[in-house]
Known about the structure:
- By secondary structure, the chain is mostly helical.
- It folds into two domains: 1-57, Orthogonal Bundle (Arc Repressor Mutant, subunit A); 58-192, Tetracycline Repressor, domain 2, CATH 1.10.357.10.
- It has helices spanning 3-31, 38-45, 49-55, 59-82, 88-103, 112-120, 125-148, 154-173, 177-192.
- The chain is elongated.
Amino acid sequence: MTDREEAARERVLDAARELVLDAAQELFYGRGVQAVGMDAVRSASGVSLKRLYQLFPSKDALVLEFLRQRDVRWRLRLTGHVEAQPTPDERITAVFDWLHGWFSEPDYRGCAFINTFGEMGAVSSEVAAEAQHHKKAFHDYLARLVAAAGRPDALAGQLALLAEGAMVTAAISGTPEPARQARDAARLLMQAHPGTDLP
């Protein structure tokens, strides 16, 4: 195979991979991992079953890549909103404003990591590890926001619990209101832990 042919083959594989992952994002998040088979992913993506298994040798491999891709996309969306705010305190409360927008989306089904961990965490250490990584990264981000506002470290864990509880409650109740309630609670916690009012 020539270099040109190899490059063309890689482009085809890359395009097929994106089609498969887009389908997996929609199906796994919308219906749950256990309810979706590889044939459903094949049908939704338009990629042949043979090519699908060339890209992802097993459903478990696809599930892990689904989680990794979702982690990156989710955190980029969150930080893009939060970092646009002008002050450290506003960046903390902006987390909950962003959650409200996410909860308001018509396809919101809760946190994909909580959902997938609930389905597979007990039997897949790799799924458990991906969920733990995502949650730790979120907590670490909150810790950086808290530190930038000059507030005590303990506040980060408290904010994380508010956010995680809001994700679950919003999914079950079908309303974005838990984000507002969590934001109000976050403000009360911030009042209890005064910062340095950094510019």
